[in-house]
Amino acid sequence: MTGRSVGVAAIGITVRGVVQGVGFRPFVHRLAKRCGLAGWVENTPGSVVLHVEGDAAALSRFRVLFRSEIPPAARVTRLMVRKARPTGASGFTIRASRRDGIALSTIPPDIASCPQCLRELADPADRRHGYPFTNCTNCGPRFTIVASLPYDRERTSMAAFPMCAACRTEYEDPLDRRFHAEPNACPACGPRLSMRGADGAPVETDDPVGTAARALLAGSIVAVRGLGGFQLAADATNDAAVRTLRERKRREEKPFAVMFPNIVSVRAAVRIKAADEAILRSPQAPVLLAPGRARSPLAPSVSMGLPTAGVFLPYTPLHRMLLDRAGRPLVMTSGNVTDEPIAIGNDEALSRLRGIADLFLLHDREVVQRSDDPVVRRVGRGVYPIRRARGFVPAPVTLPRSFPDVAGLGGELKNTFCFVKGDAAYLSQHIGDLEQAPVRDFYEEAYRFFHRFLDARLRAACNDLHPAYFTTAFAERAGADRLFALQHHKAHIYSVLAETGFAGKAVGVAFDGTGYGEDGAIWGGEFFTVDGMEVRRAGHLSYFPLPGGDAAIREPWRTALSLLRETLGPAKAEEAARELFPGVPPASIRLLLEALEKKINVVATSSAGRLFDAVSAFCGLCVRSSFEGQAPMRLEGAAASKAAGTYPFTLASAGGQLTVDWKELVEGVVADARRRVPAGVLSRRFHDTLASAILAASSRLAESAGARHVVLSGGVFQNVTLLSRVLSGLRKRKLTPLIHRLVPANDGGISLGQAYYAAMRVAGG
């Protein structure tokens, strides 16, 4: 096609989202050729831009196919189509990437193995048969191998592996699915496996994967170098092996995630639907929390009595080969001692995991960016994030408008941080709890990486209101012109506003564990009114004394005793506590009652999370906790499937605040518990009562504020039993719920809310 001709039309398309490093340009090239169109396509910072011209009917066909055949690993957030002037282009070309204003958006997340690569892996006639590092533009490592920008091979850990002639030919051919696949490799030129024993000595073997599989089947613990760091593997059907892993890893009761050979084996262990299978098979390949089956093949020590299991499928060729050889599900948990960062280097793992692993399955491709596995639940037909990590990071959350550069520094637990640049919010991978020095070092390392890669010129940074948080102190060296502090639960609400772009009138409900309140109390069961970007506290659960701070979290009976005292009085509280908590020494009960009386180490709280803890203790489900969230998890897990009525509660107004009084609820739970009503019935009544209280308070606030939307956030709403009842109830009341779909409802999402708040402040919103 030369010169302009009659009947020639042209369009320009700009695509934003995860559209680089996922085979998008070759896809456009092939599609344009199929449709007989000319033009060009190129990468620009944060987008793919293309121009196509030719016959109008062919252009129309191109637009239909373009939308329906987008590469599976791509995630389009914005698609802009405009009319263009024909240029007389001859043929279709892939232009060199534009490097001006390079941003983190040019790096896609790590992508689970695609079907084509898995077919090659299994094909004895293919040159990549049995090669554990097979990948293409549709799959493979991305974020975890990047050392610097722009995202080219020489700036990744693949720089140590020059491509052979065959791989180079694939890499340079626009019609090949390995065109510009930066991690492209084969057995002749790519990374290789090796093995070490428990003492770090080399293990000679021609079959590292088979050796590891045989060790696992014999009950050994194997450290596997994965995509974002090391994982500790054990036979998930061998209770002795799983208990050994718990003991060595110092992980008493927190459930383990389990990787399954295939979807058929998943179905044997948990109850899943088509929507669940789609999540498991997605390019992100997350760990999915699903209800377990009564006759599951998994060892009891995997989930430790909880009725759900965390399941996922192999997402790298190495995982696929290991699971195929083992032929059974494997525990696949973070390669660390509990509460430490995941190990990423071979030498690091041999040192830090010594005494845990019996065998080390290593390779020589360096992991540059630490990243745990993501965890999700399904709500409706969609993903509901619990932990945002590998596969999701650094894909941005698209904001409703463009902003100056700002950062949200996150909280103390389940930490992430967030950078806003333009209309994109980039959350870090899951960092973890910042109580340990190594995790704080990881935070600072990752923060500097994002700051540098985004070329961020921070106009502001926002931290939590809590004066003792690590991130509050870190704010002074965050590299920002201005600093803001935002109350924890308001950050939860702003996080949903950022995700959804909602800017009207709404009621906000933030229910979680604990957060420092604007009045010096510990908040956690909060109601807000939202008007545009203004968020005001409008109500809360009635305050109660929280005894001992963190001690109350580790020992839920303490919070339960405080609620007993507030409800029944000191004398009756002691009597009831001795009956309900037979494992707690009477002297400890008396001592705590005295501390409550004298207000020693006691702070007022409105925490919904601590209310869950107390009810779990009343039910005899969790009197002492070995990990954060254990008591509520056991309470949700015990809930009966059939409705069992509700307990009374009272809505009251005081000082312009709506309060939910829980005393009648607690009185009812305690009376039922002392009558030995089954824990499942108690739990179901409690969940239904709390849902009713949320609905009643939200409806009253919505009516007075003229709002028709309700924003739900906070770690308590990870509880799908509660969330589903609230969602259903809101819809019956003709109120529209707004929930998380891109970031966690727990504290892993508050950095987005902090950054959005700071962005609005700087922009004058």
The termini sit apart by 51 Å
Number of helices: 24
Average pLDDT level:
94
Proportion of residues in β-strands: 15-25%
By DSSP, the count of extended strands is 28
Main sheet: which strands, in order across? Answer: 6-13-7-8-12-9-11-10-14-15
CATH superfamily of one domain: DHBP synthase
CATH class of one domain: Alpha Beta
- Architecture of one domain, CATH level 2? Alpha-Beta Complex
Looking at CATH, which topology of one domain would you report?
DHBP synthase
Radius of gyration: 27 Å
The portion of residues assigned to helices is 25-40%
Envelope shape: globular
Would you tell me the structural class of the helices and strands?
alpha/beta
Q: How would you characterize the largest beta sheet?
A: 10 strands, mixed
Low-confidence stretches: 1-5
Report on the structure:
The chain has 765 residues and is of the alpha/beta class. Among the domains are: 8-100, Alpha-Beta Plaits (2-Layer Sandwich); 193-363, DHBP synthase, CATH 3.90.870.10; 379-501 and 745-763, Nucleotidyltransferase, domain 5. 34% of the residues lie in helices and 23% in strands. The protein has 24 helices and 28 strands. The chain has a ten-stranded mixed sheet, with helices on both faces. The protein has a seven-stranded mixed sheet with strand order 25-26-22-21-20-27-28, sandwiched between helices. Strands 4-1-3-2-5 form a five-stranded mixed sheet. β27, α23 and β28 (736-738) form a beta-alpha-beta unit. α16 (556-568) crosses α18 (586-598) and α22 (679-705) packs across α23 (720-732). The two termini are 51 Å apart. Residues 1-5 have low confidence and may be disordered.
